[in-house]
Structures are given as C-alpha cells and as structure tokens.
Amino acid sequence: MVMDNRYWRIIKRPEGTDFASALALVEEPLPELAAGEIRIGNAMLSMDAGTRLWLTSREDGYQPPLPIGAPMTGLVVGEVIASRADGFAEGDLVRAFGIWGQVSQVDAVMSGAIVLDPSVADKRAWFGPLGMNGWTALWGIKETGAAREGERVLVSAAAGATGILAVQIAKLLGCEAWGIAGGAEKCEYLTRELGLAGAIDYKSGDVGAQLDMAGGFDVYFDNVGGPLLDEVLTRMNHYGRIAVCGLLADYGSGMRTAPEQFDQILMRRLRVEGFFSPDFMDQGERLTAQLKGWLDQGGLKMPYDVTTGLENTLSAYQKLFTGGNVGKVIVELDG
Ligand SMILES: NC(=O)c1ccc[n+]([C@@H]2O[C@H](COP(=O)([O-])OP(=O)(O)OC[C@H]3O[C@@H](n4cnc5c(N)ncnc54)[C@H](OP(=O)(O)O)[C@@H]3O)[C@@H](O)[C@H]2O)c1
C-alpha cells in the first residue's frame, strides 16, 4: 500500500535564523521499504544546534552539508511501523537519525537505529539525559575535559540541553561547577535550581569582569567559541583543559572562531581538544547506564521545551539560536 509522508525539505541554505525561507513542508509518497530498512512513525523530533552546520555549504565540517532538496535530518524517537531489518520488529520503540517528518524510512544500520527500553517512563529522556546530549556532556566533562574532584569547571550555553547536563555532571563528579548563559533568568535557574557555584550572564555587563570575580577555571566545556572563548582563555588556570564541544557563535553567522588569545594555550600550558559524539557511539551502552543511574537517583534534572505539531518545527528550532529555550527542545508529533 502506498503511504504518503509529510516532511521538511531543504529548499535553500538558510541565512541566520531565517529557516522559514530555507525549509518547506512537503508531502510525497514513501518509496517501498528496501532490505535493511525500517519505517519509523516519528513520535518526537530532537532539535539539535549542531544540525545548523549541516545546513551550511561548508565542505570542511565534521560531515558533508545536507544537499538542497534533501529532507532535513535529525534524531527521532518513534515506533517501528514496518521492518525489513534484522533485530527490529513492528511496535519496537526506537531512536535513530531520521528526518523531520511524520515518518522516517531509514537503513537501520546507517541511521544508528537502536531499540529503546520501553520501561523508561518519560520517553523525552531518550533525547536528553539518555541521548546524545547526555553522552556528549559526560564525555566532554569526564574524558576530554578530564575534570577531577575539587576542580573548577565552566560550561558555556549552560542552560541549553548539552550544557545543563554538563554542569550537573561536573557537580556529580565533585567539581565546582559554573555556567555561562544569556540573561538573569537563566543564570538564576542555574544557581537556584541546579545549585551551581555561580553563573555568568554574557548578555549583561562586562563578561571579563564577571569572570574575574569568579576566579580561574581548570576545565572549560565550550559550546560556543567566538569572543567568549577569548574571555575564558585569559582566565584559565595553568594546566587547564578546554573541551571543545560546539561553536554556536559560528554556525549561522559565517564567522570562524579564531581566538586572539591563542598564545595563552602555551603561556598557561592548556590542552584544547575537540570531541564528537559519533566517535564514541560504541560506548553508548556504558554511557547510558551511568547517566540512567544518576537520572534514577534524581541527580540529573532536565527541563523540556516542547512544541507540538510538525508544522511548528521551525519555531522550535529557532529557539536554539536565539536563546529561547531552557533545556532540551523537542517537537512532539500528533498521531
Ligand atoms: N561535539 C558533539 O558531539 C556535540 C553533540 C551535541 C551537541 N553539541 C554542541 O552542543 C552545543 C549545544 O547544542 P544543543 O543542541 O544542546 O543546544 P542548546 O544548548 O539546547 O541550545 C543552544 C543554546 O545556546 C545558546 N546560544 C545560542 N547562540 C549563542 C551564541 N552566539 N553565544 C552564546 N550562546 C549562544 C542559547 O542560550 P543563551 O540564552 O545562553 O544564549 C541557546 O539556548 C552546540 O554547540 C552543539 O553543536 C556537540
């Protein structure tokens, strides 16, 4: 039986946060299911800031740009509605790299599809603490940042999905955690709700002076790059580590982070290292187990910013780049 799918197609490269001119909601029949493929009835779409890079024409990113005319790719959670892949049966709850549409028809292996534990009550957690954001936060703090008990850890975009987990993980590992976020409300959330040692509001006043008041840092988990990185480079403690998670300041601006204070890497004997979640996907089970332990004990909080309806996806996505969100941005699809 031929089945129609509604999905967001890339019609041109977006400028800044003008996603409405760049993506169009289209409808077309699904092709027949090929061997190795599964058809997922998407229940939720994960909005991830890193996908903005795939919408640019940059060929030197960590993956090639998505072609014009292609469906917009992203992480999805939903039930398998048809399967021609070993290990996947109709009715399985799965997470995969699918498309922003009602249905994701994907190769089970290429899309990194995994069957999820149906006993987890809040399915949104598969995008947050138990998803890529959780893995990334844990890896960046513990492995790349090598944060040790008692050290001072600073995280940028700290009220967003990845950052909010990174600051809490730093705390759980016995570090003194600080966050950088835009606006007094977000900073208050970080200190009052999450109990961070302090928060820097990069949208108000002199960021350098706020950082001076805070004192030096041993680990910087950076989601942002840009001018903020320069401010932090001159406030790192000797032998500190900078875990480069993302470069949000660059994604929609066409700018490339090029720190003026690069020399501080030598002066302070810093280690600066990028890391990328697909590189440690094979560690997913171990990372999820540790994160689930903390989550079940109430050690990890995650606020969700939920938008309903496929047609409202672009306004949800935009929040990542305007700072409209606290925590994980998700689009729930009806029916
Ligand atoms: N390396 C990896 O494998 C990996 C995996 C997942 C995510 N990431 C990275 O993690 C970062 C966060 O992604 P996410 O999906 O979790 O999004 P998110 O943090 O939930 O949302 C992005 C937040 O970043 C802040 N922001 C946006 N533009 C900014 C700018 N120019 N300067 C400072 N802050 C800015 C905004 O909050 P404010 O109100 O505070 O501005 C916004 O809420 C991204 O850089 C992403 O690429 C990397």
SSE string, helices as H and strands as E:
EEEHEEEEHEHEHEHEHEHHEHEHE
**CATH homologous superfamily placement of the largest domain:** Medium-chain alcohol dehydrogenases, catalytic domain
Count the beta strands: 15
CATH architecture of the largest domain: Alpha-Beta Complex
> Into which percent range does the helicity of residues fall?
25-40%
Major sheet, described briefly?
7 strands, mixed
CATH class of the largest domain: Alpha Beta
Question: Which ligands accompany this protein?
Answer: NADP nicotinamide-adenine-dinucleotide phosphate
**Count of domains:** 2
What is the distance, rounded to the nearest whole angstrom, between the alpha carbons of the first and last residues?
19 Å
Identify the notable features of this structure and list them briefly.
10 helices; Rossmann fold; single chain; 2 domains; binds NADP nicotinamide-adenine-dinucleotide phosphate; globular; 335 residues; seven-stranded mixed β-sheet; alpha/beta; Quinone Oxidoreductase, Chain A, domain 1; six-stranded parallel β-sheet
Q: Could you walk me through the main structural features you see in this protein, from its secondary elements to its overall organization?
A:
The protein has 335 residues and is of the alpha/beta class. The protein folds into two domains: 155 residues, Medium-chain alcohol dehydrogenases, catalytic domain (Quinone Oxidoreductase, Chain A, domain 1); 147 residues, NAD(P)-binding Rossmann-like Domain (Rossmann fold), CATH 3.40.50.720. The protein contains ten helices and 15 strands. The strands form three sheets. Strands 3, 4, 5, 6, 7, 14 and 15 form a seven-stranded mixed β-sheet that branches. A six-stranded parallel β-sheet has the order 10-9-8-11-12-13, sandwiched between helices. It has a two-stranded antiparallel sheet with strand order 1-2. Strand 14, helix 10 and strand 15 form a beta-alpha-beta unit. The longest helix is centred in the middle third of the chain and has 13 residues. It is globular, with a radius of gyration of 20 Å. The protein starts with a strand and ends with a strand. The mean pLDDT is 96. The structure holds NADP nicotinamide-adenine-dinucleotide phosphate. NADP nicotinamide-adenine-dinucleotide phosphate (NAP) binds next to helix 2, helix 3, helix 7 and helix 10. NADP nicotinamide-adenine-dinucleotide phosphate binds next to helix 2, helix 3, helix 7 and helix 10.
